[in-house]
């Protein structure tokens, strides 16, 4: 069975790669991921705040930014997110990871302002990483900033990074854009080679005893995949050479198959591996291989995007009909009855 796929111009033996997380935070974990069968590894992010405080010579504790981190923060060892793991240590880790394994290593920068991104992107490239992921994690909290201004800031970041490096660039996005297809088009024009759908926002809760907000963390489950499937299906086939990665919600064989059919070039795994170990990669591979053989698929490319809007004669009509059918199917007794 041919499971080969192309992500960001990287020829991968199969679509399962490690997403930015603690799973790539030490050399031992990087080696274990390769041994477990990962096709590539996205190393945990270097955060904008780490760069700023390194440059300013300030000493801060990680809890200052605990509500800004978007990568399963409580699973990070202290040496990864604490005061002693700054930009220089991160770069050294990238360098060592490249030397330790044969699979592609993808560096990750997490932030929202231009700042030193170009400088560190250049350093990533000099180290020899195979690609880089720009994690544009941002939640606007003022009514003075327009959607156009936010999108312009992001495309400017991508454009500046592209001007500094030749390695492939993926942009990790949230789903909260008024016209995601158009914004992705802007990112492509700015120089992005791919987008990652989607970032997971960790919303703070309210502690009623202490009357204060508190950070919360919950790993993804398969229910989160539905949002990704919709937008993968919408974006697939719209762009000239843009790769699509799915992250969040893939836990089973069926989840993976659906993501690929919707249009994903690769699948970033994090939560399922944090829960069950990186050894879960091989059962996922075996599962999709068996299903494809049973259903007479010869390759991943044959299946990719087969359930996308690109392959629908009238996707807008289908979307509207599905919406109306779901609303009509809900009965007062709480049962769902689908009319056929």
From TrEMBL:
It comes from the Bacteria. Pathway: Pyrimidine metabolism; UMP biosynthesis via de novo pathway. Residues 88-291 form the Dihydroorotate dehydrogenase catalytic domain. It holds the Pfam family DHO_dh. One of its GO terms (cellular component) is cytoplasm. One of its GO terms (biological process) is UMP biosynthetic process. Gene3D superfamilies: Aldolase class I (3.20.20.70). The lineage of its organism: Bacteria, Pseudomonadati, Verrucomicrobiota, Opitutia, Puniceicoccales. The keyword Ion transport does not apply. Coiled coil: none annotated. Keywords: Flavoprotein, FMN, Oxidoreductase, Pyrimidine biosynthesis. GO terms for molecular function: dihydroorotate dehydrogenase activity. The keyword Flavoprotein applies. Its cofactor is FMN. This is Dihydroorotate dehydrogenase-like protein.
């Amino acid at each position: 069975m041919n499971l080969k796929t192309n992500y960001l111009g990287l020829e991968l033996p199969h679509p399962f790669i490690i997403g930015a997380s603690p799973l790539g935070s030490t050399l031992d974990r990087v080696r274990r991921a390769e041994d477990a069968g990962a096709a590539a590894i996205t190393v945990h992010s270097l955060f904008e705040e780490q760069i700023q405080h390194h440059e300013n010579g300030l000493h801060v504790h990680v809890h200052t930014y605990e509500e800004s981190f978007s990568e399963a923060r409580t699973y990070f060892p202290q040496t990864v997110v604490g005061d002693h793991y700054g930009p220089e240590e991160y770069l050294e880790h990238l360098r060592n990871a490249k030397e330790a394994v044969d699979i592609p290593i993808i560096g990750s920068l997490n932030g929202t302002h231009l700042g030193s991104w170009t400088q560190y992107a250049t350093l990533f490239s000099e180290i020899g990483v195979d690609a880089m992921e720009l994690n544009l994690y941002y939640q606007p909290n003022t009514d003075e900033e327009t959607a156009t201004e936010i999108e312009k800031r992001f495309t400017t970041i991508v454009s500046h990074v592209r001007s500094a490096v030749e390695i492939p660039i993926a942009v990790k996005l949230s789903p909260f854009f008024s016209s995601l297809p158009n914004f992705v088009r802007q990112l492509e024009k700015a120089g992005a080679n791919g987008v990652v759908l989607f970032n997971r926002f960790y919303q703070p809760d309210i502690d009623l005893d202490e009357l204060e907000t508190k950070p919360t963390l919950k790993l993804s489950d398969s229910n989160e995949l539905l949002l990704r499937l919709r937008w993968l299906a919408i974006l697939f086939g719209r762009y000239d050479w843009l790769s699509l990665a799915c992250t969040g919600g893939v836990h089973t064989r069926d989840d993976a198959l659906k993501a690929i059919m919707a249009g994903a070039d690769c699948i970033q795994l994090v939560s399922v591996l944090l829960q069950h170990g990186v050894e879960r990669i091989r059962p996922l591979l075996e599962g999709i291989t068996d299903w494809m053989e049973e259903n007479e698929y010869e390759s991943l490319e044959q299946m990719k995007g087969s359930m996308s809007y690109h392959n629908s004669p009238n996707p807008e009509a289908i979307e509207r009909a599905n919406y109306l059918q779901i609303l009509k199917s809900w009965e007062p007794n709480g049962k769902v009855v689908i009319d056929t």
